[in-house]
Structure formats: structure tokens, C-alpha cells
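Do me a favour: review this protein, sequence plus C-alpha cells, and tell me how the chain folds. Record follows.
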Amino acid sequence: MTSQCSVGSVSLRVLALTVLLILVAGCQRAGMERPESPGVRGAAPVVGVAGTEDAVRDRAARGLISERDALPAVEVDPVDLDRILDSWVARDDHLQDRARFWEAFWTTRSRDHFERYLERMGQHHAFVDAELEARGLPASLRYLPIVESGYHHSIRSRVGATGLWQLMAPTARDLDLLVDGIVDDRRDPVASTRAALDYLTYLHGEFDSWFLALAAYNAGQGRVGRILDAHVSDRSLSGDEQYLQALPHLPAETREFVPRFLAAAALASDPEAHGLRPVDGSRAVVYDEVLVPDATSLDVVARAAGVDEDEIVDLNPHYLRGYTPPGQERVVRVPRGTSETFAVNYAQIPPDERVSFVEHRVASGETLSHIARRYGVSVGELQGANGNLDPRRLQIGQQLVIPLGGVTAGTQVAAANTAGQAGSGNGTVTHVVDSGESLWTISRRYGVGVDEIRDRNGLDEGAVLQPGQELDVEGAARFYTVRSGDTWGGIAQRFGVSAGALARANGRSTNQIIRVGEELRIP
């Protein structure tokens, strides 16, 4: 009797406890707020909490994660928390397994490639970091260009995505970047970084999850939205939980996108720990920015800044045709410390001399002779400016570069006579200034720098030339060593002489081949 009562009492207590647990569990599912990803909308940052019990079981049943509800919740200082790398989603077993695969790949078979990525990262990450900080974005996004482009500013994917952040042309235009036949701002590390971070900020606002934002950045916002609609039954789940439910249904490349990002972050944040060369911040690209009001050739910018054209081209890879677009004021980058020299010299360049070449599309029936006569250049100059073009291979629709400002030997003699040029016999030339001339036009005639003429004649930077004024112009021979990709026309444009004159000064013609390492005399 007593034992029966005792058993009955225990049974009643177990039953009551069971009912209580059911009620508590029901309240938890129905009324308790699910944890958001840490750092989003002020949610308390928590690491190790996988979401609600049902969500954990659902993901475990599909083999995406192991049940982690037994893991302790760890509070983290939100100031130190990276909202991507320190998220509980980043600790998902499946994502971690794939991340470890990419870490192994980049430290073995693709080690050389990854070290080149780090090398290029050293050139740009200081600027990227500053932009992330200004926007309050996760610092780990600095590693996204490693995954996208290997930090290469001009790389183009098979589907047309271009630049450091691999933006598609329609997306870039929506972000106010210029993409046309003259300019592709996706290749501009500065403009593309700002646009890409604006886009990531927008995507995060749309999906309330950095993981969905990264997926949408890779696959497209519309495509990710459709996958969520089709495969996430409860859209009231946090964005991070929706990402894990949608993960098996994302395109294969997008499924790997976050693991690759996590692996890149792990390696690039501490390269030496993984046997990789460290990121060299001393290689950061530094520059001044100047404004040009209208179409201007990059070789003209280089001469005005007093630097080699290659330096200007390297700093401005987004100017596809070698000049800024007509009718637009554009920023051009010049080497650090040369902006003042540029401003003084550029102001002296007549507007019609700020473009050293134009482009011509060959029409039906045209020959090189016709085109040369039309633009007032020699056939030799035209050939030299286009890689020693064979006239017999001219094709309709072909794009030709037409050098401007180059003069033949005959017109050089005429110019010398009318301008009062006289050889002094001691390695210099005396030039008599004609009406309307500037130091820039004179420097182009003799193939010397503006600063050289100014220094040689004791002229201040703001000095105004007067008709009849005599200037000593450096006449000593200069030499140039041919590099890969050089042509007669390209070298001639760099030094402000005609291709024909350059060839003749070396006892050659422009239809003869020049070879890498060869030394050419500059007239």
C-alpha cells in the first residue's frame, strides 16, 4: 500500500514535470525571439548558439551541421567582434570543412598564386581598410578581393565581371561607375572599391545577413531571393538561419564562396603562421590626384608631370584607350609629389594639343595613304604608331591610332627656319620664341622636358614667354633601351618626336623591327 502510494506519487511528479517542460518548450518556440547574427541591428553578440532547437535539428537532419545546442554561449565584446568571421554561422561544420579544403589548396598546389594575391593585397589594403572603417563595415571584407580577383585590378572573368571586386557592367553602371569603350571604372581600384562597398552595404540591408549578402554578391540578388522563396519555409527566421537553409540550393560556385572567403581570411590575416610570405604594406600605391577638364592623353599627362608614361598608365588602368573621355572633367592619378609640376605645365598646353593621338576606324576603300593624307601624317608614322602595320593587312572596321603633333623631317627644317632656330655648335640649340608658343610646345619640338628648358634658362614656374625671346635648348643626344611591347610610334610619342624622325636618327625605317634591349638614339 505504501509502496503503491509512493510509486503513484512519483508518477504524478514525473507527469507534472513533463507537462511543465512541454509548456516551457512550447513557449520557447512560439514566443521567444530567435537569436540574430551577432552585431546585426544591435543584437547581443553570442558565439556558439546555433539558433532555436527546431532549427538545429532541421539543419542536422539535412547533414549541414552537428547539433551544437550543447555548446556554451560565450559573450564577446562587440567592439572586437567581426560580424562575419566571429559569427556562429562561420563555425558551421560544413562551412569549416570546405574552408579547410581551400586553406590546404592555397598552401600547397596553389601556393604561388596565393602569395601573389598577398603581394597585390599589400598595394591596396590600406585604402580598402580605410573605406571599411569609414562605413562601419566588418574589417574581414578586406579579404573579399582575394576571393574575387586575387586583388588584380584589371582581371576579367569568363562572364565579363571585371576588376578588383569583379563587378558586372550593369551592376557597375547602377553604382554610377562609367563603363564604355574609353573608360572602365571597374578597373579603377579606388572607384570600384567604393562602389563595391556601397553595394555590399545595400545587400546586407536587404537580407539582414552578411552570409546572404555575400551569396547575393556572387550569384545576384534576384537569384538568391528566388531560392529563399522556394526553399525557406519560414521567412521569419533570421537572415543567417535562412542562409543555412538555402545553402544546399545555391549554385555550386556560390556554395563555395563563403568557405573560400573564410579560408582567405584565415591565411591572409596571419600568412607567416601558414608558411606564406607576409603582406608587404610598404608596397602600397601612393599618388596625387589631378583634374583634367577634357580629353587628355596619358602621355601628355606624363610629360606635364615630368614622369614616364608607364607610371601614369599603371596608376590609371581604367582609361582603356590611353586618354580621358572628351567633354568630361576627370580625375587622373600622378605619382606622389608631382601634382604641382603637372598643374604648372598643363596650364601651358594649348587645348588642341592635349591629345597626342586620335583613333580612326577603317572604312571601305581606304588605304594607309588615304588615311595618312587625311590626318597630315606620313605613312611611316602611321605604320609605326600601329605596330609596324602591314598595308596589305588593312581591314574594314579596323581601329587605327593616328599620332598627332608628330612632324616629319621636312617640317622640322621649316619650323627651324621660321622660328629662328640656330645651332650654336656647342651641343645646344638656341630657339627664338614665336608668337603663341609655350614651353610645352617648344619641349615637344625638341623632345626635351619642360623642366629641363626652364632650368637651363633660369625661368620661374609662372614665367610667360615673349615673342623674340631666346632660349637655350638641350641638344645632347639621348638614348632609350627598347622594352617589351615598344613600337616606333609608342617610343616616338613618349619623347614628343615623329616615328619617322626617330627611325631616321637610328639609320632605320619604321617598317623595320626593333628588338627588346636595343638602344635607340632619341633625336
